[in-house]
Design a protein that fits this description.
This protein has 2 domains: 200 residues, Rossmann fold, CATH 3.40.50.720; 107 residues, Alpha-Beta Complex (UDP-galactose 4-epimerase, domain 1). Helix content is 38%, strand content 18%. The chain is built from 10 helices and 13 strands. Strand 5, helix 5 and strand 6 form a beta-alpha-beta unit. Bound molecules: uridine-5'-diphosphate (UDP). The site of uridine-5'-diphosphate (UDP) has 15 residues, from helix 6 and strand 8. The site of uridine-5'-diphosphate has 15 residues, from helix 6 and strand 8.
C-alpha cells in the first residue's frame, strides 16, 4: 500500500482525506499536533503526535515509512483571527511549512498536495473565479497561502518538487457514512454555527454584515462538500504519482449562496427555526467568492457528488445531530 504523509490528518479536512485514501487502497500516515485536531479522528493509519516544524520527528517518520507524497492540512485558517494575529499565521502557514518542505527535499520526497484557498484572490473583479485571475489577497490568511503557492513554484524550479495547489472555496459537510465530521473549538465557520443554533446549543446566529453589494446584503460563498474535496486531492495525488506537472486548481461548485440562503436551506433540512441577528461586517471578508472548477473537471476528471447545498447541509446535520458534542461523543 502506498504510504502518504497527511500533515494535519486529525483535523476536519485531513481526517476525511485519510478515510478517503484508506478506501482507495493507500495508507495515510498522520502527523498532527492536536492543537485543533482530534485523536479520535485518526482511524485509518499510523499516528505521530508532534509539530510539522520538528525536524527530528520528520526524519523519524521519513525513515520509518516509504512516504511517496505529502498532503498538508495543518495551516491555520481563520480569516478574522489572521487580521488580529498575523504573526501566528505567517509563523505556522509559512515558516513551519518550510521546515516540512526542507525535510521533504532532503529525503527526496518530491510530491506535495497543498491546501490553498479562494482567499488568495481577494476581492474579485469578476465571478466565477478562474485560476488565472489576479490574486490580491485582502487578509494575512490569504497572503500566507499565496506566498506558499509562489514558494512552491520556486521549489519546482530548483528541486523538481511537484505540487498541486488546490484553492478551496468553503469546505463544508461531513462524511456521508457519519463516522467523522466538523468539530472546531472555538467554532467560527458558518455552517456548523448555523447547525449548532438549530440544535439549541446557541441562542442565535450573528450575521456579519447586512450591507454588502449582494442580492440580500449578506456575503456570498461557494460551499463544497468535504468528500468532493477528498476526491479532488486523491485525483491530484494520482496525477503527481504518475509523473504529472505542478498544477493549481479551484475547488468550488460554481454556485454562490448568501448567508440567508444557508439559513433558509438549513431550516428546511433540520426542520428547526434558526434565530439570527445582524452585526458589523467581519474585517477581511470579501463580498462574494464563487469559483469555477472547470479546469480540474476537464484535466483530472473530478466529479463532485454532493454539489447541492441541501446535500452538504444534510450530511453536516447528520453529524451534528448525532454528535452534539463533536468527537467527545464519537
Ligand atoms: N459568518 C457570519 N456569522 C458567523 C460566521 C460566519 O456571518 O458567525 C459569515 C462570514 O462573515 C462569511 C461567511 O459567513 O461571510 C462564511 O464564513 P466562514 O468563516 O464560514 O468561512 P470563510 O468564508 O471565512 O472561509
Amino acid at each position: 500500500m502506498k504510504e502518504i504523509l497527511v500533515v494535519g490528518g486529525a483535523g476536519y479536512i485531513g481526517s476525511h482525506m485519510c478515510k478517503y485514501l484508506h478506501k482507495n487502497g493507500m495508507t495515510p500516515v498522520v502527523l498532527d499536533n492536536l492543537s485543533y485536531g482530534h485523536r479520535q479522528a485518526v482511524q485509518w493509519g499510523p499516528f505521530y503526535e508532534g509539530e510539522m516544524a520538528d525536524t527530528a520527528l520528520l526524519k523519524k517518520i521519513f525513515s520509518e515509512h516509504r512516504i511517496e507524497a505529502v498532503m498538508h492540512f495543518a495551516a491555520f485558517c481563520y480569516v478574522g483571527e489572521s487580521m488580529q494575529l498575523p504573526l501566528k499565521y505567517y509563523q505556522n502557514n509559512i515558516a513551519a511549512t518550510l521546515t516540512l518542505l526542507t525535510e521533504m527535499v532532503e529525503h527526496n520526497i518530491l510530491n506535495f498536495i497543498f491546501s490553498s484557498t479562494c482567499a488568495t484572490y481577494g476581492e474579485p473583479e469578476q465571478l466565477p473565479l478562474l485560476e488565472d485571475f489576479p490574486q490580491n489577497p485582502i487578509n494575512p490568511y490569504g497572503r500566507s497561502k499565496l506566498m506558499m503557492e509562489q514558494i512552491l513554484g520556486d521549489l519546482d524550479h530548483a528541486h523538481n518538487l511537484k505540487s498541486v495547489c488546490l484553492r478551496y472555496f468553503n469546505a463544508a459537510g461531513a462524511d456521508s457514512e457519519g463516522e467523522i465530521g466538523e468539530d472546531h473549538d472555538p467554532e467560527t465557520h458558518l455552517i456548523p454555527l448555523v447547525l449548532q443554533t438549530a440544535l439549541g446549543q446557541r441562542e442565535k446566529l450573528t450575521i456579519f454584515g447586512s450591507d454588502y453589494p449582494t442580492q440580500d446584503g449578506t456575503c456570498i460563498r461557494d460551499y463544497i462538500h468535504i468528500e468532493d474535496l477528498a476526491q479532488a486531492h486523491h485525483l491530484s495525488l494520482l496525477h503527481l504519482l504518475a509523473g504529472g506537472a505542478s498544477k493549481k486548481y479551484n475547488l468550488g461548485n460554481g454556485n454562490g449562496y448568501s448567508i440567508l440562503d444557508v439559513i433558509k436551506t438549513a431550516e428546511a433540512v433540520t426542520k428547526k427555526t434558526i434565530p439570527h441577528s445582524y452585526a458589523e461586517r467581519r474585517p477581511g471578508d470579501p463580498a462574494a467568492l464563487v469559483g469555477s472548477a472547470e479546469l480540474i473537471i476537464r484535466e483530472l476528471g473530478w466529479k463532485p457528488q454532493f454539489n447541492s447545498l441541501e446535500s452538504i447541509l444534510q450530511t453536516a446535520w447528520n453529524w451534528h445531530s448525532n454528535h452534539p458534542d463533536g468527537f467527545k461523543d464519537a
